[in-house]
Amino acid sequence: MKRDDENLAAVLNRLRRAQGQLAGVISMIEQGRDCKDVVTQLAAVSKALDRAGFKIVASGLRDCIAGQGADGADPMTEAELEKLFLALA
Hints:
Layout: H1 5-30, H2 35-66, H3 78-87
Helix pairs in contact: 1-2, 2-3
């Protein structure tokens, strides 16, 4: 999948945010924090990861429609894109 710099930066920012949130969740658990607070932060991590995944799939969809595969490879089929998308559900 071909990624432009703007999309790549957006995905990396989302993943770094999720990484920081996950570290916070681990710390909260180690500190014995309230279950509600931990689950709330864990949900935020999950949402950040989902958004990064959807951004990657959306980029793949654009590339597939344009007929561009990564490194000269054939573009993803509709079925492959659907499978990737549903893996995030």
